Amino acid sequence: MNLEQHDIGVSQVAAAIAEPARTKILCSLLDGHARTSTELAAIAEVSASTASAHLAKLKELALVRLYVQGRHRYYSLADKRVAQALEALMVIGQNVVPTFHSRTPDRLQFARTCYDHMAGTLAVLLHDRMIEAGWLLEVDEQVYRLSDSGEALLEGLGIEVRDLASKRRRFACPCLDWSMRRPHVGGALGAALLQMTIRRKWVTQDLDSRALALTALGRKEISARFGVVLSMADDRSTRVSNQHHVMPVTH
Fold first, then answer.
1. How many beta carbons lie within 10 A of that of residue 101, not counting itself?
2. 129 phi, psi to nearest 5 deg
3. Which residue spans traverse the membrane (predicted)?
4. How far apart are CA 1 and CA 141, in angstroms?
5. I want to staple 170 with a disulfide (CB 3.0 to 4.6 A). Which of 107, 187, 207, 240 is the partner?
């Protein structure tokens, strides 16, 4: 593909994402869940026919993927690269609209999913603590690895580190957090950390939200295992966490 074709491709994708309803659709899929066009129409606050037209355009540009199961049709983000691009645009968008951060719901600011890994204040605190303790080491600006002590810590929590290293994706990398403007842990390790916290019931996820709620057990265990002390005031999401049904993140 030559430079001119690249320019055209970027322009088409930018135009597709720039439409507000499509932006809402794409951002709602950042939690890794697939949704029907009816659900996405409600999220985007448009009619079913308008949502279908938007989804057709997003599918044409390889931004979303369609799954057909019987009479049901589900849409998800095409892949993790689309999620990473959206998160990066959210960071840039805050520079354009400085008040965006203040309008972000507290529950999303504290802890949420970023495609298949954890984001928000909690994720950034865990990232910083792992760096500070020497468990997570920077190979370069875009690559992390675990130290021996870091590997022992995570294997003690049930994460098969060696299996992660054999996956056909980046093992661990910094992912810039749009609400904190600092990195959290992405890659296969980030996904494994999220699944571990859900499996151990340290966090719960709402049925129809990207927000993660820290449990009392999670606060205690994160403090004991990682040395990250969280007060009740830190996690505003716990005030409403028990009012929602929860389900595990699926990929």
1. 13
2. -65, -40
3. none
4. 28
5. 187
